[in-house]
Amino acid sequence: MPTPLAEATRNKIETDSAIADVASRLDQQPAITSTESFGFFLFRSLREMTNIKFALASFVVNNLRRRYRRSVLGFAWSLLNPILTMCVMTAVFSILFKQNPKDFGVYVFTGLLPWSFFCESVVAGSGSLTGAESYLKKVYIPKLFFPMVTVATEAVNFASSIFALILLAAVAGFHFTWTCVLVLPITALLFAFTYCCALFCSIATVYFRDFAHILRVGLGAVFYTVPIVYPVAMIPADYRWFYAYHPMARFVELYRLAICEGQIPSLEVWASPLVVTVVAFLLSFALLKKTERDIIFRL
Amino acid sequence: MDALIEIKNATLRFRIYRNRTPALKEAVIRVLSPKKTASEEVIEFNALQNLNLSIKGGDRLGIIGLNGAGKSTLLKMIVGIYPPQHGSVHVKGKVTPLIELGTGFDHELSGRENIYLNGALLGRSFKQMRSLEEAIIDFSGLEDKIDMPIKYYSSGMLGRLAFSIGTIMEPEILLVDEVFSTGDAQFVEKARNRMDHLISKSSIVVIVSHSMDHIVHFCNKVVVLNKGAVVAEGDPEEMVEYYRQNIANVGAAPAPYKPASPQPALTT
Q1: What's the pTM value of the predicted model, to 2 decimals?
Q2: How far is A141 from A129, CA to CA, in rounded Å?
Q3: In sequence order, what are the residues at sequence separation of 6 or more whose Cβ sits closer than 8 angstroms to the Cβ of residue A43?
Q4: Residue B80 carries which DSSP code?
Q5: Residue ranges of A 29-48 with Cβ closer than 8 A to chain B
Q6: Cβ(B79)–Cβ(B97) under 8 Å?
């Protein structure tokens, strides 16, 4: 019968050795540990991600630099571009639909900007692993790095577009409330969701190269199911339940409530995006765990 | 911390798709039709077979073998690029691979920007790169062209820049794949001194080379690889002799060992 003290000591020794074990496993080259739990895998992925944050920043900055290199206005284009596009589209649409340009413009773009961020990220992200073959075969970089570069680059564009929208609307005399601040947590959630989708699609494309093309068409179809250029009120009441579950429709609603309506979105609106993000996270990381050691042989 | 590389029973299998990449269509067909279609033309071969290696602090291991014997693949497995399908690879210590110099060079960007980009890919932090930047530029001898896009560099200049970035830090574990000379005569001399210095400072060095002189000069232990398997292991002189007689010279084997100058492993 062990005494409580001996028991405690033994527990302590076991915990210590468990910690030492985790530490020693982390010191190894990451891709080489073969059997690990899902929790440990997530922990290791997070650690790998923080280890390469400088590489991430370099890639994102260089992507942006390359885009505006040798143009006279340089980075100003990242703000000018969305401003000009929005002006043109608002003018066209408000004439076409005979709407008040100010309200209509803000309504459309609070929907269109998050959607384009999601769509562009997933489409570009789906090719991010296959496109990174030359890197992956020459240096060790965790697989989750490349989709992150794509989504982070798009996120910078998205942020400047949202900023441009708020700037433009303010100049046009649109009335804002403090709830605009909620754009930050909403965007964080959208970023997480988008990244998980991009990661999943990038792996799927490694195994099925056609996936990227199917995806593009599929997303084109999904666009019309999101109430961006039409209000949900236009939809017959019988079908409206669909929009309560549609994650992108709910994301768009979150942005609209925060920016246009000046309301704090209720939990009901948050539900679908939150659940879908968790599901996307689990699915994409489970897929990554399963394929991580095989991807390099399939490129 | 003592550096260590422990490879146990490692088998690395490559899969080669002959004329097509795996497509969704074929996966669908395979699911729908009960008969296995022979459409998937895949060749599998073992690049490394049942490899056992134990490299400890202080070891200078040379790897010799014919082209395609799996030498570079072995280095890439140690780096973690190729995880083995069977067996295990255990590496303790910070690995600096001098395998493919200049990975991730972006030709639109300036030399200076590429120093940061390449350093980031080698796992360095921003702070480290900022403190190393001057030393790298200085060693490369490209002071006056460093802010120019590297697409205007000559291949020799690119090689000098890549070499300078790759070799700026003293590693714990150094993996070298035929990186002994880059650039003009003046630089080659400098590069050789730097390599000598790095090799003497590293805890573990693994060298892949076709130059037997280099192998005998640097290594205290040599492994002979043939078709992905270790066929002999031991003292450098003996192993080089063994390799020359039994592998490099055997009947239909490709051209025997020639003391040609090794190519810089530069990628653009």
Answers
A1: 0.84
A2: 11
A3: none
A4: T
A5: 29-32, 34
A6: yes
